[in-house]
Please model this.
Amino acid sequence: MRYRAGKTLRLKNTREISRMFHEGLRARDSRLTIIGSVRDGGGELPSRMAAAVSGRHGNAVARNRVKRLCREAFRTSRGNLPVGWDFVMLPRPGVSLTLGGLRSSLTALCVKILAKSERNKETGDDS
Model:
């Protein structure tokens, strides 16, 4: 798999990110909260992500470092993630974030979101 991931694999549109916060499925662990939703057009389109980092992570330098770690975790984990989804990563403040920890959390939480999605399909629930 090619691990290149440019800006085309990032959620940048404010409307799309707002939709994720309102309609997306959530899963969390001690490091990370993930919001996931099937991408419009879904199917074989590549998954995209955004990292939302609050001011509680520190100054701009610290926040940008956390965002870079999140993007790198997504880039190197793409082979283990579902295709046709959008994700928003919300790292928890006050937790030591490492690339390996973020990668393992990301893949585990994506599995949880897929399971929630399947349960919602079975029950006919849209939330």
Remarks:
- Helices lie at 14-23, 60-77, 99-123.
- The longest helix spans residues 99-123.
- Strands lie at 25-28, 32-38, 48-51, 85-91.
